[in-house]
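Teaching assistant's notes for section 4

Start the section by putting this record on the projector. Ask students to predict, before seeing the second block, whether PfkB family carbohydrate kinase will look compact or extended. Collect guesses on the board.
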Amino acid sequence: MQSLQAPTLALGVSEGAKRRAVAGSRLARPVSVRHHRRVAIRNNAVFADADQAQRWIDAWKARLNAPRVVGVGSAGVDYLASVAAFPEPDQKLRTDAFETQGGGNCGNALTAVARLGLRPSILTKLSDDGAGKAILDELRDDGVDTAHVVIEPGKSSPFTYIIVDREGSTRTCIHTPGPEFTPKEMPLAAIERLLDGASLCYFDGRLTEVAIEVAKVAKARGVPVLVEGERLRDNLPALLALGDYVCTSANYPQDSNPDAPGFEAAMVAMASKLPAAKAIVTTLGSRGAVCLVRAPAQAGKAPSRAESLADVVSKLEKDAAVGMPAGSRGVPVPAWPVVSDAVVLTDAGDEAAAALGAVEVIFAPAVKLQKSSVVDTTGAGDAFIGSMCYGVATGMELKDAMRLGAYVAAKKCGSLGARPGLPDISEVPEAVFQGKEKPKVAAAAVNKTASRPPAVRKAKAPREMTDIDKEFADGTRKSIAPGLSKWMLKLGRRYQ
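Reveal the predicted structure now:
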């Protein structure tokens, strides 16, 4: 390979690292690197030339300025068994494929956030067992900050058995929770440190006692709050009431409003009880997602018309179907979301309509995939919510964030498990962002002077990656730390 003159690199990289970056020589394997399946280093060469090295440096700098998303909720281990058809009682059968992967709604959503280029941090509780260590390792490999994870020695970390039925395109989960997480383990000072520099705080609806305390502090500090409602849980209504943005599963509105005559009435009734929420999003599986956005009152404007949500969604769904890309073995660009005028929804009666007020309805269709392209739907909702977190944190319009979520969720469904199929931002077509340049992360959204707290845990806390990132960027650190090697190699992979 032709030798190149070493360029001047701005980040305080050692001379040896410069030579390797420019000459494309093979990088010696760093200590304790587990070759994660997502890290595809071509011929073990990190960079082929100076331009490639500079692109990597620019990406590193961009990540330092990226919005920080804090997530509170579950992280665990998923044991996934893919079978031809769901077993009958007392039946024996063979698996077609078996995977052990990181899981948990919050862990999955934050992995999506990290791969889209932001800086996520997770608050959860694990134990010091082998599963707990594996959970932390996989999150760190994807660039999720785990410094705030609480560890209780001698317990079992959360895990889930998942049966993936290829014939019925379903997945059945059997979950074993981890150690109890109580508010006394997160004093106010620890919560304040957790939220330093946060652009968004996301809650997956679990660990609700701790989550409520964190959400209250986030609201007081002006940090936007996004809450997920997947299924009925203790204290979840109180947590949802704190959300600026609420995302639910298709079943949650009806489950939480069992007297409602149908889905639309249940969604309107649910939204009417969430006065703090600017937007309420419900995913509808293969149909897509619907969002109710509170319309701002405008003086002198005629009152909004009254209509049922069922009729509005039906019209929007028909409009969205016009020109929708046909299903293919790949993942096509999603169709455009469609937005209604401001309407007063009548499905749940006059009292609910008055409490909710006028809303705009957004319908974002799902990507149409051939059945043969769908390997596993586990974590598709988490992929969508991770995209919504990205959209809110970077200031995207809600309809555009929903469109991004449709694409990311579809990509995820092409692989077994919740995380292997999640795309990097470089893998998302420009057309998903309305054909414009992909949104640039806003440096102003991050408090870069905020102190980085020690881990709130009994076990020894790992050194925070964000601290070392800063040392590496300003030249304080003169060489690449072995502990960063896995993440750096993963980032470098995007610029091969």
